[in-house]
């Protein structure tokens, strides 16, 4: 299918009548279980269909909570809190946290810092998504930038260490993807063949729908406040992770400041994009990629994704132009005439 290779985004999900129900003509009744909870600083929604659906959903929600308790930067017993508050000390961390830290550092390296898990000082300074959000003074941005850099994170066996005081980890751009993949393992272990989980815009579908059709995943119209779906993705065993400037933001002096911070400038990324959606088979990777590619921008981001097997990307620009990477034309259906599919320089046929 693919040749190559954030609580406001809930529209991705909230075509529940479309994506979460089996065909009304089905004659075989399949057991269904669902749950939702506020975890990992977002609304988590899950539904599963199958004999062991109840067990799969219950275990999955518990697992997500466990991951939050390990990787939250605000829970004092978490690995990340301990690392952030004990610089220059080797901290023994869980194998789960170590796995995420290794993946995060790897993506920092291969994206040359467009994704960086040590962005915590900048995130804290801007406070976007909190009541204290405001444009910081330039000198404070420079100070936070000096405390940003994946080279300040050392990983060794079961230990991690921040080697410079002031550097702060923030796994908000990758931990939900890890959680989604853990849910997939639990669902498959329980023999459930049809399931859906949404971690605040990080969507994973397992198998197809009960009636054999593909899941229909809506991509939110990124124009702030509209809450409409501008495209539908036909998905089977896929993850769709979207990063957009409409998810968390504030306005000051007539300018919008969104939550996707460029680790190299210390400011919200400015590149004429409204949103980036990564479509792939692995949510762990897709989570980091959606952030990194948004920071990269259209041209660099498209080239980057085209060189990764089995990963696709959809860009939406401020002009409402849509750019798709190779192969996505088969599964992405734009249903809003305000958006224009651009076939050309950045759209590979």
End-to-end distance: 14 Å
- Tell me the name of the CATH homologous superfamily of the largest domain: ApbE-like domains
CATH fold call of the largest domain: T-fold
Helix content: 25-40%
What is the C-alpha radius of gyration, as a whole number of Å? 20 Å
- Tell me the overall shape: globular
User: What is the second-level CATH architecture of the largest domain?
Assistant: Roll
- Number of structural domains: 2
The percent range for strand residues is 25-35%
What is the top-level CATH class of the largest domain?
Answer: Alpha Beta
SS element count, helices: 9
How are the strands of the largest sheet arranged? 1-2-6-7-10-13-14-15-17
Unreliable segments (pLDDT under 50, ≥5 consecutive)?
1-27
What structural class do you assign from the helix and strand content? Answer: alpha+beta
Number of strands: 17
Average pLDDT figure: 90
| Major sheet | 9 strands, mixed
N-to-C order of helices and strands: HEEHHEHHHEEHEEEEEEEEHHEEEE
Tell me what you see in this structure.
The protein has 349 residues and is an alpha+beta fold. The protein has two domains: 9-68 and 177-341, T-fold (Roll), CATH 3.10.520; 75-162, T-fold, CATH 1.10.3980. 28% of the residues lie in helices and 25% in strands. It is built from nine helices and 17 strands. It has helices at 16-19, 53-71, 79-84, 95-110, 120-126, 138-146, 175-189, 283-296, 298-306; strands at 32-39, 42-49, 91-92, 153-156, 159-162, 194-199, 202-206, 215-220, 229-235, 239-244, 249-252, 255-258, 273-280, 311-317, 321-324, 332-334, 340-341. The strands form four sheets. It has a nine-stranded mixed sheet with strand order 1-2-6-7-10-13-14-15-17, covered by helices on one side. A three-stranded antiparallel sheet has the order 3-5-4. A three-stranded antiparallel sheet has the order 8-9-16, with no helix packed on it. Strand 4 and strand 5 form a beta hairpin. The longest helix is centred in the N-terminal third of the chain and has 19 residues, at 53-71. The protein starts with 15 loop residues before the first helix and ends in an 8-residue tail after the last strand. Mean pLDDT is 90; it is low at 1-27.
């Amino acid at each position: 299918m693919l040749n190559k290779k954030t609580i406001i985004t809930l529209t991705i999900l909230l075509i529940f009548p479309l994506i979460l129900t089996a065909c009304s003509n089905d004659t075989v009744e399949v057991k269904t279980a669902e749950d939702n909870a506020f975890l990992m600083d977002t609304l988590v929604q899950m539904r599963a269909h199958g004999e062991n659906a109840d067990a799969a959903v219950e275990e999955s929600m518990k697992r997500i909570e466990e991951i939050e308790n390990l990787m939250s930067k605000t829970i004092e017993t978490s690995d990340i809190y301990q690392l952030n508050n004990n610089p220059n000390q080797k901290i023994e961390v869980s194998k789960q946290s170590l796995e995420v830290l290794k993946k995060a550092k790897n993506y920092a390296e291969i994206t040359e810092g467009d994704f960086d898990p040590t962005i915590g000082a900048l995130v804290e300074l801007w406070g976007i998504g909190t009541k204290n959000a405001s444009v910081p003074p330039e000198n404070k941005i420079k100070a936070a930038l000096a405390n940003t850099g994946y080279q300040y994170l050392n990983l060794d066996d079961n230990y991690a260490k921040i080697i410079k005081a002031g550097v702060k980890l923030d796994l908000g751009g990758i931990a939900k993807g890890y959680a989604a993949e853990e849910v997939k393992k639990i669902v498959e272990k329980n023999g459930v063949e049809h399931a859906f989980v949404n971690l605040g815009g990080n969507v994973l579908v397992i198998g197809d729908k009960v009636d054999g059709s593909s899941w229909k995943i809506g991509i939110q119209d990124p124009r702030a406040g509209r809450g409409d779906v501008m495209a539908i993705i036909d998905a089977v065993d896929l993850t769709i992770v979207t990063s957009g400037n409409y998810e968390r933001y504030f306005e000051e002096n007539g300018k919008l400041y969104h939550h996707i911070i460029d680790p190299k400038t210390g400011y919200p990324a400015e590149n004429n994009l409204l949103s980036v959606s990564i479509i792939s088979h692995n949510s762990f990777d897709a989570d980091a990629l959606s952030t990194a590619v948004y920071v990269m921008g259209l041209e660099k981001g498209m080239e980057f994704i085209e060189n990764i097997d089995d990963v696709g990307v959809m860009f939406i620009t401020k002009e409402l132009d849509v750019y798709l990477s190779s192969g996505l034309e088969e599964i992405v259906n734009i249903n809003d005439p305000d958006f224009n599919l651009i076939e050309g320089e950045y759209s590979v046929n």
